[in-house]
Amino acid sequence: MMQDEHLGSPARRNVFSQAKGRISQLYQKYLDLWTPHVASRWTFAFFLIFVFFLRIFISQGWYIVTYALGIYHLNLFIAFLTPKIDPAMEFDDGEGPELPTRSNEEFRPFIRRLPEFKFWYSVIKSTIVAMICTMFDCCNIPVFWPILVMYFITLFCITMKRQIKHMIKYRYLPFTHGKPKYENHEDTSRSPLVEV
Q1: What is the share, in percent, of the chain residues with pLDDT greater than 70?
Q2: How many whole angstroms separate alpha carbon 164 and alpha carbon 36?
């Protein structure tokens, strides 16, 4: 038997998908409200990281989770410092876009591989996931933590050295302090309009 369905009418959304859509809209609304407040966002992120490290220090465990979080944050930071279009890449025709290397070349703003907001958002999400992991004993793998600290410091130094060499070689700075300001040069030889 055939069921009485109207194939031409739009499918009705059930209550679950409507609630999911509404929650998604509210979530996006609050993210959009946080977007212009850079200092507040990063203050909250550093506070959350401080609370995480306080939890690790008090509980004396979950060093693998901390190490994984540190590696992930380092990876995010490197993506934040790297240009979206890497000047080190060889293009087939040799005519790919490049960063300006002289002062008389066209100004092109530095576009990051990982934008600042996505960097902050990923730091917040990963720190919350790491906090949740500290609530489960199965994530508390016993390790000799000084080795992890030394390995992380070594990895950080090697990675940052490579990134700084890349910045020097291709002459770019990942930090800009606003748009370039041009001075208003008025022509002093012209006299103001005189009524005749």
Answers
A1: 71
A2: 29
Residue 59 CA from chain centroid, whole number: 30
What residues does 112 pair with on adjacent strands? 83
The residue assigned the tokens 């507040």 is 40
The Cα–Cα gap between 3 and 128 comes to 48
Q: Which two tokens stand for residue 5?
A: 């369905």
Average confidence score pLDDT of the chain: 81
Q: What is the pLDDT of residues 11-40, one digit of tens each?
A: 556 888 888 999 999 999 998 998 899 999
- Provide the β-strand partners of residue 83: 112
Kindly report the three-state secondary structure assignment for every residue of the chain: CCCCCCCCCCCCCCHHHHHHHHHHHHHHHHHHHHCCCHHHHHHHHHHHHHHHHHHHHHHCCCHHHHHHHHHHHHHHHHHHHCECCCCCCCCCCCCCCCCCCCCCCCCCCCCECCCHHHHHHHHHHHHHHHHHHCCCHHHCCCCCHHHHHHHHHHHHHHHHHHHHHHHHHHCCCCCCCCCCCCCCCCCCCCCCCCCC
Which residues are CB-contacts of 69 (< 8 A; sequence separation ≥ 6)? 52, 126, 127, 130
